[in-house]
């Protein structure tokens, strides 16, 4: 294996470990988020997903997204408010990039100023021109696992069916719904009654949309260019 590739993976692992063990390394999240975009080594992308899923899910469970419990969220000063805004922004970017990976083809949008609704529509099968790179099935399966963990962690005891529906829609209307992804969905998640219910509801919604439009929509996932780069706690770039 080329030394440069080994070095890149080691660097990604180091970023992930630091993010989850050193409170001063929050800005590593922005660096790891770039690895969820097209054009990066698949192994590094998977390492980044694992690190980011752990980082976000732990903080979701303690209430950082809701501004509830948790050391940073419990305070009312300007620094705590800034942290919560930073967390919400980066978490939203994380879930959107996971959704884009589930579409089966990495898609770099070149149209600026896409709002949240436009991003969801693009991830479900639209978007304008951009570079496309196939996503490996192993990466898709890991992206699905991260989505499911986040959906369970946002409000412990309550499943975020909207996040799951957006991810499943991207997978079904994308260009790479693989046997591996179907196998993971069936064996790990469709055994649960609530997931089955939301799966059927999402499929029914897609079928109705296709029927009304008179054709099958498809395409790769995308994300708004207005969120690119994540940014650090100081508001700067990566």
Q: Could you describe the 3D structure shown?
A:
Helix 5 runs antiparallel to helix 7. The chain starts with a helix and ends in a 25-residue tail after the last helix. The protein has a two-stranded antiparallel sheet with strand order 1-2. It is 61% helix and 3% strand. The chain is mostly helical.
Task: Please describe the structure with a list of short key phrases separated by commas or semicolons.
mainly alpha; two-stranded antiparallel sheet; 2 strands; 3% strand; disordered N terminus; disordered C terminus
How would you summarize this macromolecular structure in one to three sentences?
The chain is mostly helical and 238 residues long. It has helices at 3-21, 28-34, 42-61, 71-74, 78-102, 116-123, 137-153, 161-173, 179-189, 193-213; strands at 105-107, 132-134. Residues 1-6, 107-130, 219-230 and 234-238 have low confidence and may be disordered.
Oligomeric state of the chains in view: single chain
Residues in β-strands, percent: under 5%
Largest sheet: 2 strands, antiparallel
Average pLDDT taken over every residue: 79
Give me the secondary-structure category: mainly alpha
Quick one: overall form? globular
Order of helices and strands: HHHHHEHEHHHH
Set out the fold topology.
Blueprint: H1 3-21, H2 28-34, H3 42-61, H4 71-74, H5 78-102, E1 105-107, H6 116-123, E2 132-134, H7 137-153, H8 161-173, H9 179-189, H10 193-213
Antiparallel strand pairs: 1-2
